């Protein structure tokens, strides 16, 4: 297994270069790279411990891929983070001791492990692509329960610039591209999705997940109310995120067809205070990276936000403690590159069954 850095700087093909127009410069990607790499390099075990969201989404991606019957000889994990998808694919899921007698949960775990085996055997070559070398190689020394039967390739380059030679050398080269919890830091998302479409083979699969607009709404509202109260105004403390209604238009513009889009809220509870939540986000590398952000959060604003969070969203426990939940709104998207071999809708007026009679 080799890790290959970006060497290409330009290519004479149809891959679009991201625009440098200020209208797309929402995020500071150099700062975001530092955020994502910090704990993976300084404290890999702690970074691993706080990867619970990425691991959960990787499992849900595996479950969805298991339903698709075709093989994926070449699969690109675009923005692969620490390789959560591959790690979960090759790790046996186990039932928590607290649920050891639950027959339904036992069946769910058994089916998940079967799904993992099915998906492992579908893939001949998996390409892990990420901008953070520390994060991408964080778990290289970890032993997996099952050896991956195919070949593993790692590439280090910026996802937004889309200028690595593996992406530029040939269009129509990947059978599938997945991207989990990475695209929300891309400035020019339409161009990136369009480029992903180009590197897929005709009728190739794109399956992605992004944080939706309702993510961390508890934290967002608490900080906004606290700043309004203490400072008389608001700073962009939480990054802007895509909304479910926008995803279909983005995928259509990028050239995808036969879209499947849905959303799910994952609620993580048990935070004793707002600082604990922010620490988790920092270790994940998911803290704010908006260019216009304020790098200083006054102590009085933080304390006020904590009390507002508790009063509006806190969950009172049996012992009287108040714990804070955090909602992560996950948007799942599936699109297929257009192909003449795909099923096509019939022309209007060719139907033979009257809908009124059916209803």
Automatic annotation (TrEMBL):
One of its GO terms (molecular function) is methyltransferase activity. It comes from the Eukaryota. InterPro entries: Malonyl-ACP_OMT (IPR050602), SAM-dependent_MTases_sf (IPR029063). One of its GO terms (biological process) is methylation. One of its GO terms (cellular component) is mitochondrion. Keywords: Methyltransferase, Transferase. SUPFAM superfamilies: S-adenosyl-L-methionine-dependent methyltransferases. This is Methyltransferase type 11 domain-containing protein. It comes from Candida verbasci.
């Amino acid at each position: 297994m080799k890790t290959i850095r970006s060497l290409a700087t330009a290519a004479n093909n149809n891959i679009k270069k991201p625009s440098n127009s200020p209208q797309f410069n929402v995020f500071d990607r150099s700062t975001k790279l530092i955020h994502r790499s910090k704990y993976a390099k300084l404290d890999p075990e702690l970074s691993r411990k706080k990867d619970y969201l990425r691991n959960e989404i990787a499992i849900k991606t595996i479950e969805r891929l298991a339903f698709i019957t075709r093989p994926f000889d070449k699969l690109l994990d675009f923005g692969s983070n620490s390789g959560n998808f591959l790690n979960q694919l090759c790790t046996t899921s186990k039932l928590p001791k607290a649920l050891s007698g639950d027959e339904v949960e036992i069946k769910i775990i058994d089916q998940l492990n079967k799904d993992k085996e099915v998906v492992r055997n579908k893939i001949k070559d998996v390409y892990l692509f990420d901008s953070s070398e520390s994060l991408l190689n964080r778990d290289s020394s970890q032993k997996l329960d099952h050896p991956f039967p195919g070949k593993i390739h790692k590439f280090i380059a910026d996802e937004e610039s889309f200028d690595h030679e593996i992406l530029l050398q040939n269009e129509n080269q990947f059978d599938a591209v997945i991207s989990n919890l990475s695209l929300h830091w891309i400035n020019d998302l339409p161009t990136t999705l369009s480029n992903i479409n180009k590197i897929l083979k005709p009728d190739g699969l794109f399956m992605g997940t992004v944080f939706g607009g309702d993510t961390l709404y508890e934290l967002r509202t608490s900080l906004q109310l606290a700043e309004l109260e203490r400072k008389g105004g608001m700073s962009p403390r939480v990054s802007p995120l895509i909304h479910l209604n926008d995803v279909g238009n983005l995928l259509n513009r990028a050239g995808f067809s036969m879209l499947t889009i849905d959303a799910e809220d994952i609620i993580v509870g048990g935070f004793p205070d707002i600082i604990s939540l922010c620490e988790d986000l920092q270790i994940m590398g998911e803290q704010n990276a908006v260019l216009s952000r304020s790098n200083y959060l006054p102590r009085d604003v933080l304390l006020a936000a904590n009390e507002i969070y508790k009063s509006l969203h806190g969950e009172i426990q049996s012992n009287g403690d108040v714990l804070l939940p955090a909602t992560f709104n996950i948007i799942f998207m599936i699109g297929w590159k257009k192909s003449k071999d795909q099923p096509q809708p019939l022309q209007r007026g060719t139907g033979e069954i009257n809908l009124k009679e059916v209803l």
